Predict the 3D structure of the following.
Amino acid sequence: MKWLSNLWRTLNRPSRYLTLGMISISAFIMGIIFWGGFNTAVEASSKEEFCISCHTMKDNPYKELQSTVHYSNNSGVRATCPDCHVPHDWTQKMAVKVAAAKDVYGEIFGVINTPEKYNAKRLEMASRVWKQFDRTKSQACKNCHRYESMNWAEMSPLAVKQMKQAAEKDQSCIDCHKGIAHHLPNMGTARAPELIAQVGHGVTPAVGQEYYSALTKELYEGPTDNTDAGILNIATEVKVLEAQGDRVKISLNGWRKRIGAGRVIYKDFGVNILSAQLTMEAAKHDGNIRVFEEKQDPLTGLTWQRVEVDIWTSKDYLLQNPDMLWSYAKDTYNTSCSVCHTQPEPSHFDANTWPGMFQGMLAFVNLDQDTTALVQKYLQEHSSTFDKSGQH
């Protein structure tokens, strides 16, 4: 400890030759050199070349990025690793740099140095990044993709509806757009609707078979006509009648109220479970809707019609059974909706009571549009109206 004691006495001894001004100037110059070196090191470690200098990053996430629109597209604008993972704000950037020490440790000790190890850790790593994006409301995305700069005229009607709702509350992009730069992890039943929907992506449904819509989907008048005909609600059962190109003609059985054009289609008589909402024009178009019978609802006095709707939609995002959707809806309801109190069983209320009850819960949770619609539909379809087990 003697050397440390001598060093301390030297540092505390008044300068014999240097003036206070010279010391101040020297300290200032040294500060500039230190800060310049530090900032240079930070910027060097914030370049894509640095990110992919280790084989784990180059052989896994970087290779996945190269197959996406963020790497190659019509505009020629490429998003690099730092664009998404290094914040512009200095404080947040330093926090990310400190947290990256875990990645350095993982690389040195081979925690994810094989594809098998990497995939085993994929969900953990993805969840960490998603939480970071949630905290900043996906600011990394919004550095390039700004709501106020979006051209609504270039979007489909359904995309406009969803994006405008997101813009109104400055929603985090990651709520709906996971898996656009890297492969999605295996999430089991804890998969959001847009992730579950990937199961039916790119698969042409078989004619004559029944399917369920994995997302809210656009409807069209014909196989090539882009005229908006309405929307098909999530988790709605349909039958495929015909396939042509990237679209299929579907048949939807349900009921509608004999009010106005009768363009809202419900799952069952007297039950307000939404299956589809047609545009006014599509509802009035001959051949789209066939009426089979009429019944009067004794509770409301309204006349309902049993109908069958033949309409076109895209072939994507159709599942052969709704099990994954219901499993996700059940998990979401049990976790998200128990923040304030123990939630009632789905069979505690009837199908027409649940929408009002569920809407009251939404003020305390943060769910995207499709998840909201799916959970409500799950509660309605598993309500006392359909569950006769006497558990309510």
